[in-house]
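_Backbone structure tokens_
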Amino acid sequence: MSTDSRFVHKIWQEEELSKMLDGGVPFPMLSDGGGKIGAVYGVYDEESGVDIRGRFIIDPDFVIRAMEVLTPEVGRNPAELLRQVKAFQHVRKTGEVTPSGWQPGEITLKPGPNLVGKVWTVWKPDRRHGV
């Protein structure tokens, strides 16, 4: 979502995002022309009339699960956004938790008292695929 029009979003999806991610982003881009939604989320810069770089992952129950706000001179990572969405979907479906950098098919963790203080004995970066 941004203060850009839906027409700008269409061109951005076709000309930029499709080059960053095969086929572009798999979700709609929304226009916040007056900055009302950006203001609610604290990312609308009233002086310049634009939403600053922020992203929010909101689950089906409308709970914010993740947010990131960056100043305009630093870009966001679309691959990391999609990785996090997949991780949140997996967690919601299974009740398991995903370690940092988790990708679908990799080892997950079962939350509970037995895991406390022992994450590194269960999950190690060199064992991410169960090897």
User: Anything to note?
Assistant: The chain has two domains: 6-74, 80-127. The mean pLDDT is 84. Residues 80-127 form one domain.
